[in-house]
Amino acid sequence: MTAVPQFDPLIHAPGRLQICAILSAADEAEFAMVREAIAVSDSVLSKHLKQLEEAGYIKLRKQAHAGRQRTWLALTSAGHKAFAAHVAELQRLAGMVAPAPLGQGFSG
Amino acid sequence: MTAVPQFDPLIHAPGRLQICAILSAADEAEFAMVREAIAVSDSVLSKHLKQLEEAGYIKLRKQAHAGRQRTWLALTSAGHKAFAAHVAELQRLAGMVAPAPLGQGFSG
DNA sequence: TGGCTGACTTTCCAAAGTGGAAAATAAGCA
DNA sequence: TGCTTATTTTCCACTTTGGAAAGTCAGCCA
Q1: Is the distance from CB of A24 to CB of A18 less than 8 angstroms?
Q2: Which chain A residue's Cα is nearest to B18?
Q3: Are residues A97 and B87 in contact, defined by beta-carbon separation less than 8 angstroms?
Q4: Contact A103, B27 (CB under 8 A)
Q5: Using one digit for the tens of pLDDT, what is the confidence trace for A80-89?
């Protein structure tokens, strides 16, 4: 029985899960936009990004040539894969809910 | 943009998410079975269950008439609802991923 | 009744994770 | 050089999580 999956804690943490979700939906997102989307401080977002980057899940692109320095975030292919895998696990959980009346032979 | 959901931390924690998943799949599950399924110590499981119970998400049934005392766990309707809602949020994330054929070639 | 056993529950404590403020750093510009 | 904007680091507090061990409770046995 493999019904109970084990998640990637790096992605599972709410904040980072949200970051990944945003990046998964958009090709790229700006630091400030993400920070506001998940409602955390600069420092916190920066730390999350660092973790994701060190894991090779995202890539930071600093666009500094237009006067202002701005950081754009994007999932790497590894990041996409990891996130997709995590979501797949989650969907397996979802599958446990939807179907229905299991749990009949649970007397042992 | 409401693409970024906020999760119920009580359910989102890996251990408890797994507990809920198990209970969601079965009508009832035994303490020891769950403890082994999620690979934690008695004390840890007990504490998780206490939290879920205090939130009204699960109910403990002590069946002590057959000689040994055994505790059976089951989600309450509130628990089912909360878990389903959480999974729905998760599926919204999944929806952000699914559309595209990921996993093939990502030159990111 | 007293003691034993099995099945949790509680207490105590260490380790990890998370969050924010503030200082530090980087890049471009006056 | 000094200012400004944008991010990163450091420092620190708080919460969560996990396990070991002691405690509790119910039923059995002598």
Answers
A1: no
A2: A4
A3: yes
A4: yes
A5: 999 999 888 8
Q: Is residue A1 part of a domain?
A: no
- C-beta atoms surrounding A104 within 10 Å: 8
Domain membership flag for residue A79:
yes
- The closest of A102, A99, A96, A90 to A5, measured between CA atoms, is A90
In the three-class reduction of DSSP (H, G, I as helix; E, B as strand; rest coil), residue A101 is classed as coil
Amino acid letter at B31? F
Identify whether the C-beta of residue A15 lies closer than 8 Å to the C-beta of residue A46: no
H/E stretch holding A96 reads helix A77-97
| pTM, two decimal places | 0.83
Is residue B99 assigned to a domain? Answer: no
CATH number at residue B24: 1.10.10.10
Residue A41 sits in which domain range? 9-92
- Within-domain flag for B18: yes
Spatial contact of A22 and A39, defined as CB atoms under 8 Å apart: no
Number of alpha carbons in the 13 Å side-chain half-sphere of residue A100: 1
Tokens for B99, please give them: 């559309």
Please answer whether residues A28 and A74 qualify as being in contact, where contact means their C-beta atoms are separated by less than 8 angstroms. Answer: yes
Chain A residue closest in CA terms to B97: A24
Q: Could you say which residues from 3 to 62 on chain B have a Cβ atom under 8 Å away from some Cβ of chain A? A: 3-7, 9, 12, 14, 17-18, 21-22, 24-29, 37-38
pLDDT one-digit tens code per residue, A17-49: 999 999 998 999 999 999 999 999 999 999 999
Q: How many domains does chain B have?
A: 1
